[in-house]
Amino acid sequence: KSDENTVYHLASVTKTFGAIILMQLVEQGKISLEDPISKYGINLGGRWGSDNRIKVKHLLTHTASGNWLNGFKPGYSFRYNGAWYGELGKVIEKGAGESFGELLMKNIITPLQMANTVPSTDDTINFNLTGYSKDSFMAKVAKPYNWQGKKIAPITMNYSFSPAAGIMSSVADLAKYS
Question: Which of 75, 81, 82, 172 could be joined to 4 by an S-S link, Cβ 3.0–4.6 Å?
Answer without folding.
Answer: 172
